[in-house]
Specification:
Elements lengths: L5 E2 L2 E2 H24 L23 H17 L6 E4 L16 E9 L1 H6 L5 E8 L2 E9 L4 E8 L2 E7 L5 E3 L14 E3 L7 H8 L5 E3 L2 H9 L5 E6 L6 H13 L3 E3 L17 E6 L4 H15 L6
Parallel strand pairs: 3-4, 10-11
Antiparallel strand pairs: 1-2, 4-5, 5-6, 6-7, 7-8, 8-9, 12-14, 13-14
Length: 305
Amino acid sequence: MVSDPLYAGIELSALLPVLRQLCWDSAAILRAYARGTTPPFGYPPVLSVSDDPKSPVSAADLAVNEHLLSGFARAFPGAPWTILSEETVAQWPPGTPIDAEWLWILDPLDGTKDFLQGTGEYAVHLALVHHQRPVLGLVLLPELDQLWIGVLDAGHAEAWCESPSAVRTPVTFSSRSAPAELIPVTSRSHRDDRLEPLMDALGVADGIARGSVGGKVAAILRGETDLYVSLSGRSAPKDWDMAAPEAVLLAAGGSFTHPDESPLKYNTGDYRQAGCLIASHGVSHQALCQAAARAMASIDPDFPL
C-alpha cells in the first residue's frame, strides 16, 4: 500500500487485523451451524429458524451478529462510528437517516435461504460508509475460504482476496468486452419478471445463478462472470446487501451504478436499493448502462431506474 489511510481516526493497519479475525471467527461459526456441529464461542448449538419464509432469520445470523458487534465494541470502544446491522435495524427510526458521519453497515449472513438450503452460497458483509458512500468493504465467503477486501481512499484504491492463512491473491477480471461475450451472474432466489426481457435486450451471454450479492460480485472479481443486474421495487435488496460488495468491486476498478451512471447511496432513510442497478468489471459499463436505460423505457416506462 502506498499509505495507511485513516478511517474515523483509526489507521487501516490497526483496523484490518481486527476485521480479519472477526471475519474468520464468523466463518467458523457459520460452518459449524451449516454442518450441524457445536459452534465456537459458546453460541447455541441448535440452528433455530424464524417462521417467516420470506425473510428467515436463524440462530446463525444472530450468533454472527452478536460476535461482530461485541468484537467491534471490545476492539474500538471509543471509535466515533455507528454500527447498523440487518439484525438490529429495528432500533432505528424508519424513514430517517442515521446521524453518523462514519457508519458501519453489516450483514451477518447474506444469503440466509442459501445457507439453510445447503448450497454453500452465503456470505458475511462488512462495509464502512462515509457521507453515504462506502470507503472500506469486506466480503467473506466461508465455504470458499475467501475474504475479499476493498480499500477506497482519496487518490488510492486497492482490492484483493485473502485465505485464512493471509495469503493474498489479486482480482482477476475477465478480458471479455463485447456484449455477446459478457457472462451475467443472476440471483438464485430473487427474480423480477422484467429481468429476463432486460437481459435479452442487453444481448449478453447465458448466465449463471449464485446466492448472496457478495457471492455474485466475487464471481466477477474472479473473472468467472462479468456483470450483475439487480432489478426490483418493493422487495429490493437493502443497504447491507450492497455496500460491502460495491466497495470491493469499486476498489478493484469495477463499476456499480444505476443506468444513468449515478452512484448508489447509503443511509438515506430508505434502506432499499431499488430500481435498476448494474455491477460490472467496468470495461463495458457505460454501454451496458445506456442499453439498459433504452430497454427499460420499452419494457416498463414507469419503472424507476
